[in-house]
Amino acid sequence: MVKPVLPGHPARGSKSGRPIMLLLDLLGRRWVLRLVWELREGPKRFRELQMAIGASPTIINERLAELRAAKLVELDTASGYRLTALGTELLHLFLPLHAWSEKWAKRLSA
Amino acid sequence: MVKPVLPGHPARGSKSGRPIMLLLDLLGRRWVLRLVWELREGPKRFRELQMAIGASPTIINERLAELRAAKLVELDTASGYRLTALGTELLHLFLPLHAWSEKWAKRLSA
DNA sequence: GCGGTTGCTACAATTTCCGTAGCAACATCG
DNA sequence: CGATGTTGCTACGGAAATTGTAGCAACCGC
């Protein structure tokens, strides 16, 4: 069991509970960025996420629980897992990465 | 030894070599986001990074090697590790996270 | 020479993650 | 009613990643 990311709990590698450290801790955990990314176009089921990402259900579930505790993702029984309002805000901050990654890849292969 | 993030090498959990997947893979590895963040205000020495982050030198070195292979970080023997031009671009995409994380933390504690 | 800093490595112990199998709850269809 | 399918999720043994500690070789100033 991994420590939850919540106010008062210091992030791994940081004695302070500064929000940016908590956020970097959460987003730096394996598959978390991918999970948020996979939900960018709407809700997905547990197994859909599992298939799309290719990770074990154990860790998918653990990461989803962390994202739910962080109020970035929620489970709607009718449609599946989806981003909350907060999660959608976060996703929008990440969208520029898509275009930038193309530029970056060209520089790498050059 | 972890697979390097380079064109042609598919990212973990993705059969395609799409740049965004490579990038999310790289950034999702433990301590990578923290490392980029710690270099935001200028170069730092290996041991400075180690102290600031609190991770083992083994993994600090491995992640720095990956970031160097990705041309996001470089080592200047006179001043230490620093962001490349590409790395600085990436950092700028992440800077809005700082302000947003404060808002997020308030929502969590509410 | 001597002490300090540099980046970095070795290696055993611990933690995390994977891969597979499967469960309980619920819905749907006959 | 039973049978079948889908849902989210868990157990558990093996594999992989990470930690913590110690220390090395190269370099610089004195």
Can you put this structure into words, describing what you see?
- Two copies of one chain form a homodimer.
- Chain A is mainly alpha-helical and 110 residues long.
- Chain A has helices at 19-27, 32-38, 46-53, 57-69, 85-94, 96-109, and strands spanning 73-76, 80-83.
- Helix content of chain A is 55%, strand content 7%.
- A two-stranded antiparallel sheet of chain A has the order 1-2.
- The first copy, chain A, is globular.
- Chain A starts with 18 loop residues before the first helix and ends with a helix.
- The mean pLDDT of chain A is 90.
- The interface between A and B is large, with 40 and 39 residues.
Brief description of this entry?
The structure is a homodimer of 110-residue chains. Chain A has 110 residues and is mainly alpha-helical. Chain A is 55% helix and 7% strand.
CATH topology of chain A: Arc Repressor Mutant, subunit A
Instruction: Provide the helix percentage of chain A.
Output: 55-70%
What structural class do you assign from the helix and strand content of chain A? Answer: mainly alpha
Number-wise, the strands of chain A total 2
Largest interface: A-B, 40 and 39 residues
Tally of discrete structural domains of chain A:
1
Determine the strand fraction of chain A and express it as a percent band. 5-15%
Specify the CATH architecture of chain A.
Orthogonal Bundle
H-E order of chain A: HHHHEEHH
Q: For this structure, what is the CATH class of chain A? A: Mainly Alpha
CATH superfamily of chain A: Winged helix-like DNA-binding domain superfamily/Winged helix DNA-binding domain
Oligomer: homodimer
Major β-sheet profile of chain A:
2 strands, antiparallel
| Rg for CA atoms of chain A | 15 Å
For the termini of chain A, the CA-CA separation is 43 Å
- Helical stretch tally of chain A: 6
Uncertain runs of chain A with pLDDT below 50, 5 residues or more?
Answer: none
Question: Widest sheet of chain A: strand order?
Answer: 1-2
Compute the average pLDDT of chain A: 90
